[in-house]
Specification:
alpha+beta, five-stranded antiparallel β-sheet, globular, binds zinc ion, Znf_SWIM, metal-binding
Length: 151
């Protein structure tokens, strides 16, 4: 897979312009049965995604994500290319099942669901490390998902 330079990637937040990926496109791309989709959604909801970044080149959006390996602290790098309509065109994952340019492993699936969630709900569930949590005395109740603003 031909990827853009790593410094062109930016963390995905609710201000990131992403192509309109939806659940049907994900299902068609992965050819998953409903039961397998449910498993992937559970993995995503239990925060198996560590981070997601995007880089736009012409009509294509390249998304890079890191997905935690189930039950272990290992992580896999996942790359996905989406076209302007949101359809996934190619994907690659570091795991044994994800080689080549059409990886359909669960790590690719988890990243696709993350992107879809950001497109549809403006929210992305990532794993939180303990130092990400500030002390709670003056912390607002509502989560801010936009680009950071200068104080
Ligand atoms: Zn994989």
């Amino acid at each position: 897979m031909q990827l853009p330079l790593s410094e062109t990637y930016r963390d995905i937040n609710s201000n990131t312009i992403l192509p309109p990926l939806d659940k049907t496109m994900i299902r068609h791309y992965l050819c998953y049965k409903h039961k397998k989709i449910d498993t992937v959604v559970r993995l995503y909801e239990s925060r198996h995604l560590l981070m997601a970044r995007a880089s736009v080149v012409g009509d294509n959006t390249f998304v890079k994500g890191y997905c935690r390996k189930t039950m272990k602290s290992l992580q896999y790098e996942v790359d996905i290319v989406l076209n302007i309509n949101g359809n996934p065109e190619a994907s690659h994952c570091e795991c044994p099942a994800g080689s080549g340019t059409n990886a359909l492993c669960k790590h690719v699936a988890v990243l696709l669901f993350g992107i879809k969630n950001m497109v549809r709900e403006k929210n992305l569930l990532l794993q939180e490390v303990c130092t990400q949590k500030l002390q709670q005395f003056h912390v607002p109740k509502k989560l801010y998902t936009g680009t950071p603003v200068k104080v």
